[in-house]
């Protein structure tokens, strides 16, 4: 995820200070890892240094002064360029799940690998149920639904791969022990 671009997008809706940006990020991307305040403020500092945001005044709401930021014309242009770029499909498989299965097949026997694959399939299925409940809840926002759909699609792909791999392990086990 490009945190600077997400913050630029949030500022496109109007001036905000760091606390509001963090809260808006966490609300608008409900299934993403929450941003740390330090990350928000260091990113704002870089965006300001690069001329993409500018201070837009100070607020004080029963606490320390909070600097609000606005999107500059260069910031708006950078945001539009980023939004126009098509994301290339990932060229490498970078998944702990994939790495564990490969290592399990290297160091374990087929029964241990199969046991791991079945346990992982159960965990994925449970997470799928949780996300479906989030998505179908009466209080689900569009952000919740879109995030759940994204996660469900990825879990579904993982589940298909787990099932295929279970079949391949079974075939391999039969070949070795025939």
TrEMBL record:
Superkingdom assignment: Bacteria
InterPro entries recorded: Tscrpt_reg_PadR_N (IPR005149), WH-like_DNA-bd_sf (IPR036388), WH_DNA-bd_sf (IPR036390)
One Pfam family it belongs to: PadR
Start and end residues of each Transcription regulator PadR N-terminal domain: 7-80
Protein name (record): PadR family transcriptional regulator
Species this protein is from: Micromonospora reichwaldensis
């Amino acid at each position: 995820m490009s945190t600077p671009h997400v913050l630029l997008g949030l500022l496109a809706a109007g001036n905000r200070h760091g606390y509001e940006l963090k809260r808006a990020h966490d609300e608008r991307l409900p299934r993403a890892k929450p941003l740390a305040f330090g990350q928000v403020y260091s990113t704002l500092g870089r965006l300001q240094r690069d001329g993409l945001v500018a201070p837009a005044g100070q607020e004080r709401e029963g606490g320390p002064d909070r600097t609000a930021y606005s999107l500059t014309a260069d910031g708006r242009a950078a945001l539009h360029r980023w939004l126009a770029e098509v994301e290339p499909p990932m060229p490498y498989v970078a998944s702990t799940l994939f790495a564990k299965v490969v290592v399990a097949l290297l160091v374990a026997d087929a029964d241990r690998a199969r046991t791991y694959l079945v346990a992982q399939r159960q965990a994925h299925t449970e997470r799928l149920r949780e996300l479906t409940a989030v998505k179908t809840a009466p209080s689900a926002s569009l952000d919740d639904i879109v995030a759940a759909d994204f996660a469900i699609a990825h879990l579904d792909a993982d589940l298909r791969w787990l099932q295929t791999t279970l079949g391949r392990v079974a075939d391999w086990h039969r070949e070795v022990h025939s």
